Amino acid sequence: MKERLANYDLMKVLMSFYVVCVHVTFPDFMTGNILLNNIFKTFVFQCNIIFFMLSGKFNLNKKFEEKKDYVDFYISRFINVLLPYVIVSSLITIEKLVSNEHCYNIKVWIYRSIKALVDTNADTHMWFMCALVGLIIGAPFLSKMLHSMKDFETKILFVVCMMWSVVSIYIFKNNGFAFRINNFFLGDWVFSFVLGGCLHKLVNEKNIKKFYVAGTIGFIITVIGMTYLNTFANPNDWSACFVLFGIASFLFMEKHFCIKSKKLNKCIIGVAKYSFYAYMIHMFIYSKYIGDLFVEENGLGQYLMTVIITFVLAYIVGFLLEKILIKPLQKLVRLLLKDIQKNKIVKT
Known about the structure:
- Helix 1 packs parallel to helix 13 (275-290) and helix 5 (67-101) crosses helix 14 (300-347).
- The mean pLDDT is 91.
- By secondary structure, the chain is mostly helical.
- It has 14 helices and no strands.
């Protein structure tokens, strides 16, 4: 049996570290230097695009040929993605209601928890889940599309998406125009998600260096634009140059994050299981418990200490949440679904 490589798991852990770096207040010496601030900000902001690319890689890799394929996919994602999201989001919502508003009304808890899931989380650090849920629902059909496309069609699709970014952001938004042409079905994070599923059709050993060069140039242009241009819209999300940087970074980590030590490989795979929780929990831990620990100064030491403590605690809390609450509930749901399936078989 071929041993599983930990390159993608290491990417998950590293991106969860970067997202903590993004949300912790930058040190004073960095915020006082616009160029340095934008270099660091652009680099760590890759956590968003890499998150969606990784999600696309593992949600768009299956060929959906039978009804069972769709059923198994949706059940798996409901148990492994939606259920943890519902639990974590609800716990955070209830904790805030109790500590901030002294509210112990269960009806209010339920109402605000539901509202958070479908509405207010979009305005918090949990915004990425509002995007991910929709992407997962559409994943089987996007996967069918990608698997049926020939390589040249995938390349055309990539060019069209990049041109959409150039036109909508660089040509119009950066020049003060409101770009109201919409409903392009591969815009925004959908493009990042799809990239994760089709990058292997775009990149090979012959052209990978070109992507590295394009990504480096994209990084430099993004930093220069943020630093010296008055209007530079969406520099770290959907702009073409940043997308190129995200692709290059993804390819580099995918190719070079190879762990030779079997023990370390196993350790990284084990830790990476909780990266999803770290994404969801870290901001609550930081804002509630860690953010005010160091109030006398805001230097590099404080910043690094805050990032590391928040990062480690997010994984510890994620581990405890899964073992104590989420995993037992997941097992219960699986058992219920098995019973339902058995009853259907008996009836037929």
